[in-house]
Amino acid sequence: MLLEKLEFLENKYEELSMKISDPFVMEDQNEWRKLCKEHSDLEDIISKYREYKAATDGLNQAKEMLETENDKEMRDLLNEEYKSCEEKIDKLESDLNVLLLPKDPNDERNVFIEIRGGTGGDEAALFASDLFRMYIRYAERQNWKYEVMNSNETDIGGFKEVVFMIKGNKVYSKLKYESGVHRVQRVPETESSGRVHTSASTVAVLPEVDEVDIQIDPGDLRIDVYRSSGHGGQSVNTTDSAVRVTHIPSGIVVACQDEKSQLKNKDKAIKILRARLYERAEEERSKSIAQDRKSQVGSGDRSERIRTYNFPQSRVTDHRIGLTLYKLDSFMDGDLDEMINSLIATDQAEKLKKLG
Question: Quick one: pLDDT at residue 302?
């Protein structure tokens, strides 16, 4: 079954290779780009499949030669080759199974990340600021770009709320597991007795969506404008540039004030609104699917406690996969690869188990 599917995909890949080099097809740029994307999406699978076929050929050759070879030294070499090919085939089969898993349609998208200080007052707001910096540093390590959409700072440098966008290659595929409650255990800077406090911030990761995916009727919106505010609520702008957009049917409210232009703030607010409406629609769709579809790494529910950051012990623990890393300083500086790769691997393993 696996080999039949791979053979079919290889034939399709060859057809696409011919089409995208056809001058007549290239005249229709939209069609050509669509075919190039299909071709590109198949590249990893076909490359692995060709490695798999080469390893299988090597195995069969070694097997045939062993049947007629009498020289001991030569037989030892052939047995080594046979074993090496067997190991390679096992690994490639595993890789191919993962590559053939149904793709999350959002994996290629950019994201909006919303971080809010939760329980813990000022300390939770400071931790929200630390998380913001952590994701920005991670984005920089990935050569991704970021843009702050809206922020609400506290007097001591924390965030009651910060919403920002990260743009780049397959951003959602790596950051989608970050939604949930992030708990911190540490001695607050404001604490004189040196006691460890526990506080939390919530993170929501929303894929950026196009107008085609979510259409918004302008008649469903109420737009309010006001003066933007800084620390402690003081006015920092003399014009009504801040915008609050209310989507009346859903009750979702989005405010943006970071830009000096009212038009830019409105545009940002509607982009965030579209992402939230998409998330709500996806949640409804997921609820209608059987509960056993939920994977071990969580459903992306922002009320689920997913991770604890313990500063006195310099450790970070992800509760969904039971992974603890003792490198909190570098983790908070954006060194998230080990954690994110483990989350992806666990998710893939869960999906493979369900398919099996």
Answer: 59
